[in-house]
């Protein structure tokens, strides 16, 4: 364990994923990843196999896209329904919720502090349920190709992490991979415009409110601005910073992985606020960019996570139904 754990950022382990990828210490890495998911639901990975030049390049494309005029970005509009989660969403359009589905409660939720962010979502080409929505090619040449290339690069990292998780559960390495053959994932580009620090600290606006993710795992690339906070698992309602760690990606478990693991793994609530210890001259937060890559599946409890003493807490469920319900509540 000590050979793969490099330290902690806050309460989250920083692990060297390299020994899993090169085969020199696969079981130790797998055990450490699973342990961090059990304890916190989050882990930092370095030497993760996602080339830094590709990460930097995707952040560059995100900045180019979000720097376009609003009327140009809206030529790739997110549909009114959250169940078709593709295209561009302007600031304030999406309001993240946490298990809120009642129409009246959703209205009250949206009338409170808005999420001041803009986003662009894409996935694999040819998805019959959520086809991509792109800008006309001549408005930002190369953007579509860059998004698709990065999507498939993240896919390879995702599969490696799934193999490590399976090994952590003492299952065949392909156990989770065989449930994820359709690549029904999404790549999100997120931009948080500069806003007054006071507005964030007094919660007149939010960047992303407290929520858990929907699917199995999320890979997150964040810039150096910071602001991500993870709920203290020993003190619900209190949050701790998850600061940027150079050369790392953050991986967190979603609701489906918690359900799939019969609650052995945590799907921890998190949010984005003003970076801690922020010093500004004009009272404004710096703008922030991040790139989450999410994934979904269909689940039943993992072998070994239930017994007569610890029975299954969940029935098998279709991920599509649950994910669409959560997405619809955000719009």
TrEMBL record:
Residues 183-297 form the Fe2OG dioxygenase domain. It comes from the Eukaryota. Residues 104-127 are annotated as: Disordered. Gene3D superfamilies: B-lactam Antibiotic, Isopenicillin N Synthase, Chain. Transmembrane segments: none annotated. Keywords: Iron, Metal-binding, Oxidoreductase. GO terms for molecular function: metal ion binding; oxidoreductase activity. Residues 115-127 have a biased composition (Basic and acidic residues). PROSITE patterns: FE2OG_OXY. Belongs to the iron/ascorbate-dependent oxidoreductase family. This is Clavaminate synthase-like protein. It comes from Gloeophyllum trabeum (strain ATCC 11539 / FP-39264 / Madison 617).
